[in-house]
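Please check this chain.
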Amino acid sequence: MNYPSASSADTSDPAQASPDAQLDLRGTPCPINFVRTKLQLDRMVAGSLLEVWLDGGEPVEQVPDSLTMEGYTIEQLSDCGEFFALQIRKPKS
């Protein structure tokens, strides 16, 4: 699945907004990284933005798809070189 990336985003794009919270899950295996992301999102206010740092490979392949299936909006997925920065918006409803 393709997600918006930082390189294709315009600075006026809401996906460029500062995250309300950040979670560093580098070195965390699947499915623990998905579970920790969901727990953090559950603690956040509706409409807020979470940025999660993930390793390449299985984590960046599985976590965004799993979150999308759970009803979350992936606002941006950026390749930061040694990790990926995933921005997820918690639904308002």
